Amino acid sequence: MHHEFPVHPVPANFRDAHINAEQYRSMYQRSIEDPDGFWGELAGEFLSWDQPWTRVVDYDFTKGEANWFDGGKLNVSYNCIDRHLPERADQTALIWEGDDPGDSMHITYAELKDHVCRLANALKARGVKSGDRVCIYMPMIPEASYAMLACARIGAVHSVVFGGFSPEALKDRILDSDCQVLITADEGVRGGKKVPLKVNADKALDACPDVHTCLVVRRTGADVAWNGERDYWYDELVGGQSTDCAPESMDAEAPLFILYTSGSTGKPKGVLHTTGGYLLQSAVTFKYTFDYREGEVYWCTADVGWITGHSYIVYGPLACGATSLMFEGVPTYPNYSRCWDVVDKHGVNIFYTAPTAIRALHSEGDEPVTSTSRASLRLLGTVGEPINPEAWEWYYKVVGESRCPIVDTWWQTETGAHMITPLPGATDLKPGSASFPMFGVDVALLDESGKEIEGPGAGYLVVKASWPSQIRTVYGDHQRMIDTYFSNYKGYYFTGDGASRDADGYYWITGRVDDVLNVSGHRMGTAEVESALVLHEDVAEAAVVGYPHDIKGQGIYAYVTLMHGHAPSDDLRKELIALCVEEIGPIAKPDIIQWAPDLPKTRSGKIMRRILRKIAENELGSLGDTSTLADPSVVDKLIADRPQP
Ligand code: WTA
């Protein structure tokens, strides 16, 4: 399966890349043998410190503890803005491309400093201090970046909640990290449609009495409800503030942000990242993975509500003094050429997106691509889910005209930055493989018994040693950090992913091995969708699994058992879908609901998800052993009733 597609060697125009094959090998080896020397040097090269560290790294995986650059002090917003001003005050830091193709703007590094300082002063005026949590629930507008950087400037900890999440999901996240300030907008605009952010925020805040300040950016000018004691228009509160705000000198291990992500059980976890290690690895990987060169325009299509937006729209690019494009819209609006029109309009050199977007665009054929120039493109990237080789080849040949390497970057919210990825000047590309580990990332594959697999093989993907941008804790629940990541296999960080390694040492990520779905690159715990479904009074039980979906990668397949005496109906189906949207957001809509009179259970009452997965995947030939089921006939019934997708 790994060798059907040709290997693409490093192209001639990448021979002078930052890292060539030989450099990769020697730097990688040193990074593993001497992490202190390796990361210590890079920390000096990539970041500006107020005070040097006394020790590079100290960690203990059994306790889920990691400490990088102990004793060091720095400020993230200073590193992303102020220190660039002597050479780049007038260079564009952010290009904003609005949903409407006629809307765009350039923000220079000097302007960025003014925006961020004004907002930082406004937050201070509202009583926000170092260590306080601030929730950011925003559309993709520059103020989202200002908000993150303003928090970093004063040492406040931001928690960005994706603008597509429901009021219920927002409320849970505000409460979990005890945020007392919310920054939002009247409405968002995506694909020509309005997103009612302030309406959602109001609903969420009804249950959050400790939020004393809600700062609202005027994006559309919509008429919104107003709580005079709590709500402030952004322009009114921020506009008059001073453009000077001294950056707070923070400990290297001071919390920088919390970002919620789904796990296999219970509520989303607040992944906590800290200051020095996070910024270092996002900057280093930005420069090397994308082979970023001075003056280039870089575009990552992710939303700032996800880790990709944090590390590769805001922190990594700005720490490197790059020009980062932020796009408010969607790749399919107003038409399927939108991405390439934006590339041509702004001269984008590096383009980073998700496989689901590539598949959606691929399904519309070549014409929307070939009708554009794309001459500026030099490098392409993907992130978020495995990319099928067919989509890879199309991206490579049609979008990149066989001249742009593709970096398929594997990483996670918890890892903070790239972990396994090709380097464009060093790696011969195999379509569908994330290739080799990044500097300092010591990965291994384990078999069921927890033994390391040598050479080619498949198993659980784990990491053997701490890396600078690793998760530091699950906010407010360190035991959950230990249980989730450091307990399955003692002494290793457990990624939750399965992978194989071929004879050349290339890694191929196969996907989650836990109960986490990846729907269009969005992580979702099956347990979260199940909890939403069982809120309906007619529902007795629900089991959710993933199934292969042409565009989304994985679709959501829900088996629903109704209360005795209740009959399935189309209305009920609609109500259940609405419930998922209400509890989580539109990304959690089940694609298929199967009414299941019974679920396959063991004699002890445990749902056999393996069987439900096989039925959803239509892999009926490999159901495996069903003899341990309390009632094996349940399976035949489910197979007979399986709806045709
Ligand atoms: C999956 C996104 C295959 C994987 C940065 C991981 C990938 C989860 C890739 C993390 C890739 C991410 N190839 N699978 N290049 N990148 N994944 O936290 O299952 O939203 O565990 O972080 O996405 O998703 P998260």
TrEMBL record:
Span of domain Acetyl-coenzyme A synthetase N-terminal: 24-80
Reaction catalysed by this enzyme: acetate + ATP + CoA = acetyl-CoA + AMP + diphosphate
Residues with the N6-acetyllysine modification: K606
GO biological process: acetyl-CoA biosynthetic process from acetate
Reported cofactor(s): Mg(2+)
Residue ranges annotated for the AMP-dependent synthetase/ligase domain, each copy included: 83-465
Protein name as annotated: Acetyl-coenzyme A synthetase
Species name: Mangrovimicrobium sediminis
